[in-house]
User: Fold these one by one.
Assistant:
Number 1:
Amino acid sequence: MDKLVIRGGNPLLGTVRISGAKNAALPCMAAALLTDEPVIIENIPQVRDIETTRKLLAAMGAEVELGYGRAHHRTTICARTLAAPEASYELVKTMRASTLVLGPLVARCGRAHVSLPGGCAIGARPIDLHIKGLERLGAKITQEHGYVEAVTDPAKGGRLQGAEIVFDKITVTGTEDLLMAATLAEGETVMQNCAREPEVADLAALLNAMGAEIQGAGTSTIRVKGVSKLHGARHRIIPDRIEAGTFIIAAALTGGDVNVAGCEPAHLTAILQKLAETGVKTVVKADSVRVMGDQPLAAADLNTEEYPGFPTDMQAQYMALATQAAGTSIITENIFENRFMHAQELVRMGANIKIEGRRAVVRGGTPLSAAAVLASDLRASASLVLAALVADGETIIDRVYHLDRGYENIEEKLKAIGAEIRRVGNIFPKRAAAPAQS
Ligand code: UD1
């Protein structure tokens, strides 16, 4: 299993280019299931979750071509026929976002058979809101043997029916799943209390380019006039705001000077505002943020919220920063119930953090020292990388496959701006077997 070895202490200097947003690319790839024509998506990041989605779509019978580098990080997906509108447990268990195929499949094929995702490291994460919404759109849903079976009513021509949907709770992939389903429903759908994340608006931009009639994506009320057919389209994915935020914190933490290029600063407002409170100096241009980490860091409390609030996906990285800020920061996690797995690993590196339910109390300013640590989920891994960049000595981060799910080429990008980081295979060779005792 791969590990990252990081020697801390170098200030990061130079320019880093941000990749396309994984969380926008995943629903956009699922959206290609809604048409029998090719959908071309550019700026796809080369990360493991994209590869999982490729496998998922291919298993249903879609043709998926993926090309990186000079091929513009482009994928062409053609779901001419979908022999098996199914998502198996094998794939769903490795990536919960696989449930994004539920809405498109039932809308296009009149039937979907998708594994329930189960819990994950950061909390229970049910999909009840996806299911309730599809029922509002007229799907009949049954759950058996760990799978959801959704079918449309043959008496209604096998089409979903437009409806009013009010989400009990704001859900990002729930909004995306139902938005995709509603595009092919008969009549109008009005969805309220929707997620306002930029990734939802990006998905809607693709769907509209495919011939959908969606208004209001990116606000809490979305209106969709159903159409009977969608066609092929070409779309470019927005930059990854979480990757950008992670590099901004890396620059600030290490006292570096980094130009975070190819990002969308308008999507980073809450992050930049919070970092300004901690004393981080930034210069914001149209598509870049320069971070000058020459000021001491000061503690600031943080609440994670739905967009446009501070993202839960940046909470772990912010905690790494808080360990080095003078004073006490209280970090409150409002989105997921169990998203402090990184705290104990940071404590092993010398941080002073106490967890009280959904609150973490971080007493900052304690020096960090290198240790062998374990990544528990995608963003937790990023926080350990950040801590390692300022720790004294060589930190070894195990289970970096979590990081590979969502960060493109992170060690190459960090190395290019001065970090001492390398990836190794099994660096703890098995001890030679002891000689047999007689
Ligand atoms: C998405 C992001 C993830 C991010 C999260 C919150 C993708 C692929 N993933 O995940 O990176 O951390 O948004 O910004 O875009 N909930 C229910 N019932 C449901 C659905 C959700 O109770 O049917 C709850 C969840 O348990 C959680 C909250 O709603 O407490 C928000 O979850 P949600 O927005 O759905 O997260 P994801 O879409 O899975």
Number 2:
Amino acid sequence: MKFYEVASYKEMSRKAANIISAEVITNPNAVLGLATGSSPIGTYKQLIEWYNKGDIDFSGVTAVNLDEYYGLSEDNEQSYRYFMNKNFFDHININKARTYVPNGLAKDPVLEGKLYDERIKALGGIDIQLLGIGLDGHIGFNEPNDVFMRDTHLVDLNESTIKANARFFESEDKVPRQAITMGMMSIMRAKKILLIAAGEKKEAVVREAFNGVITPKLPASILQLHPNVTVIFTKESN
Ligand code: F6R
């Protein structure tokens, strides 16, 4: 595992964007596993800047997102599909038909999870998976649990996740209580993992995840078993 502690959110974003752009430049048909939240916004901004300069071409890239709130439609401003379009896809030359986010309105979330996993498999797996980390150690929306959930599944969000994500909503009671998230298998099968975390309040969970016991009570700890992980951490929050 490579662990970088950098001085600022900007530096974290630049380093993460560098790693992703190296992937796309060396493999123009790369499958990128992507995340939402405040951690990757700077990374997407940097990638857009380099795209505008003509330094990266996303035309052959496929994107697969980690998760989506259950119950939100694509055009809901709080949905993760909306976030991805607004913060990244609308600004680059990726083929939108090859950008995948779980369907938050799926009538049968179990079937949706199954189809999502089959799609990732059919794409040949994920070349590099970008991850943030929750204060409770979640990755995607894999919340602390008694077991590591293997497949894409519907999950009840924890109080701490609901509270942390309330900043994106009008009020806490508007935060959906469930989400569809990629399970551990698709994440662990990604050829490379790139985890970014910003802010002093994330420091303890980041250190515990990579130096502590591997346990589903701290889902990110499973990444200790992955052969190619890069972590970029900064104490500065964005
Ligand atoms: C987002 C996701 C979540 C976030 C995590 C950290 O797609 O899967 O696991 O990465 O909640 O969120 P931020 O970056 O907002 O602190």
